[in-house]
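Appendix C: a fully annotated inverse folding record. The material below is reproduced so that readers can follow the format used throughout the book. The structure is listed first as C-alpha cells, followed by the designed sequence.
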C-alpha cells in the first residue's frame, strides 16, 4: 500500500514518545497521536519520522513499524 501511494507519507518530528505511543508534529502544521503496534522502536523526542496514514506505517531510525492514529 505504501509503495503504491508514495505521496501519502507525512513528515514530522516526535514531540512525545513512550514506547507504545508517539505524538508527532507534522510539517503541515497538524499533530497526530499514534499507537505503535508493530515491533518496538526506540523513538526519541525530536527525531524526524515519516507517517503513512493509509498504510498505517511509521518510519523512524531506518525501521518501519505499524502505527495507528489513536
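Designed amino acids, in order:
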Amino acid at each position: 500500500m505504501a509503495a503504491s501511494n508514495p505521496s501519502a507519507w507525512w513528515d514530522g518530528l516526535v514531540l512525545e514518545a513512550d514506547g507504545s505511543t508517539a505524538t508527532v508534529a507534522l510539517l503541515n502544521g497538524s499533530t497526530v497521536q499514534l499507537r505503535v503496534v508493530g515491533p518496538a522502536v526506540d523513538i526519541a523526542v525530536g527525531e524526524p519520522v515519516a507517517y503513512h496514514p493509509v498504510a498505517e506505517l511509521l518510519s523512524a531510525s531506518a525501521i518501519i513499524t505499524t502505527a495507528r492514529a489513536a
